[in-house]
Predict the 3D structure of the following.
Amino acid sequence: MKRIITTHVIRNARIPEKLRLAVASDLHSAPYTDVMETFMQCDAVLIPGDLVDRHRRDNRNALKFLQEVPEKVPVFYSLGNHEVKYRHAAEYIEQVEKSRATLLRDESTVFHGIRIGGLSSRRKGPPDTDFLDRFEKEKEFRLLLCHHPEIYRDYVKGRAIDFTLCGHAHGGQIQICGRGLYAPGQGLLPRLTHGLHDDGKMLISRGMTNGAKPRIPRICNPCELIILELVPDEGGKTNESGRSEAADGLV
């Protein structure tokens, strides 16, 4: 499956130092060793949900990821719908907590002067808005991992949160003139499938793979690994985004 590497540069006066972050969304327990070198060239790996796939017979690649990647580079992990609906969720979360990955379940931590928060998916009902209330009052540059773009739209947008990373939509599966055909939680012709939105305050990953049971195949919609560069503001420069083709990606 073809995958692209997309680089986005975010400039803000509240970012204390330059950071290079890999955004590994929606891996769905697929192989990942081909991107280990890229991970190791980054300051941290961010997972905004769905490292596991609840439809797979086993999630050996997700468990291997937890054993291997955090030993080489810091990993910050927020839960998506596949984690919370996984039939072995309790046992899996225990494995996450035993690893060196930082699990952010409606909580936050400081890394190199920025505040990274994780808004967990729920099986039903709204997200933890009390956490969001606390998070937007933190003094550092606030970077939120929020798996669902529609949750961002309904509960995060308009808050004093500097930047949010989402996934879940898989780029809309089939892209027609830059518009996705379908996304869970948004239905047909969704508006929030990939790229920057909300005046550059929210970024949606197309996801690193397709999942074990895709309802719709990907067409004109490659998987992607996002590289997010956070840069201290240097006097009014605008944010940038670019794209470079990678080799054949995950299957």
Notes: The two ends are 5 Å apart (CA to CA). The domain at 2-248 is CATH 3.60.21.10 (Purple Acid Phosphatase; chain A, domain 2).
